[in-house]
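tool_log.txt
---
The assistant was asked to compare two proteins side by side. It first ran the structure predictor on the initial sequence, then on the second. Raw inputs and outputs are pasted verbatim so the downstream comparison step can read them without reformatting.
(1)
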Amino acid sequence: MTEIVTGNSRWNEVRPGGAFAPQVSDHRIRRALEWMAADIVRAGDSGLERIAKEVGLSRAHFFELFRQNTSLTPALFRNMLRMEEAYRQVAEGRNSLGAIADEMGFRAQSQFTRFFAMNHGVTPSIYRRAALRI
């Protein structure tokens, strides 16, 4: 999924931690990207509506401006942030998969495992073993 999205969008230009601010012309969307990157877990659907209000936009206008500026929906961007954070934490090997699932906002480790496998092609435990060998 990530390869498809990154190949067909401006995802690399808006990646948190990078120099995304100059590429995103709307200051409200830049601020929203920063908030989403800072609080991945709480940027759920209600969190996205809260962010829209914080930047002074209606939900519909926020979603449209976000898509125009990033070529992604806010929900897809949020899920990509969650996956990158999940990859990082799983690869580090410091926390249990259950603790990572809980921190990422999943109700159960099995839900996290399905989400991870659907988006990465392998389970978190296989990914962790491979990452720790490197």
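(2)
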Amino acid sequence: MRLIDVDGTLWNGRAFLAAGAARVPIAWRIDASPLLRGELRLQLVRDDGGSGAMPKGDIAIGRGSAELRDVDATIPAAFIAAAAGSSAPVAGGDVELRTAAVQWAPPANRGELRLRWLGAWLAAPGIAEPAALGDVRATLSAAADRLSGPVSNAGGDLAVQGTVTLAAQGGVQLSLVLTPRRADDRDLARALSMIGAADGDGWRVEWRFPLR
């Protein structure tokens, strides 16, 4: 990721956060005094008339902890995929992130984080067209050293059911059962068999992403 078209200062500015070809407009304010005790306090603000295109919220990062408050952000899935290192268009739609308060301070995490992936799609091996996932939802609750919760969807070519876990030591783990909504969709079934194991009428897919 990188900042482009920067305007203002380190303490009060605006720019575009870029990953690959995707862009997210941001504006920020930084309180200088907490830096003296090794803590970054960053406020993301909207100067787009409240349209929702720009993320907003308060972020505090200290030694071994991070806290989000009053966060409301919509980020293109293509931006997230590019930031994770993908150079190909493997995902689409918009990811909404909402939280009143969530604190990452293992082993004493607390709070709740809500995610919605709207108009979701993923490129799948062996099929020409991306697989539509409809609208995907996850509500993650913080406890001990992790954030975890259920994942489900509405609409799309696939039914999605499972869990997502973000752990201090294990990183991000997705455990999902993906079931074609059409039993005669052989191309999609064949693609799923390449990445998962049969589980009832669907395929169980496990993904792990280290935090370091």
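---
observation on (2): Residues 122 and 158 are 11 Å apart (CA to CA). The chain has one domain: 2-209.
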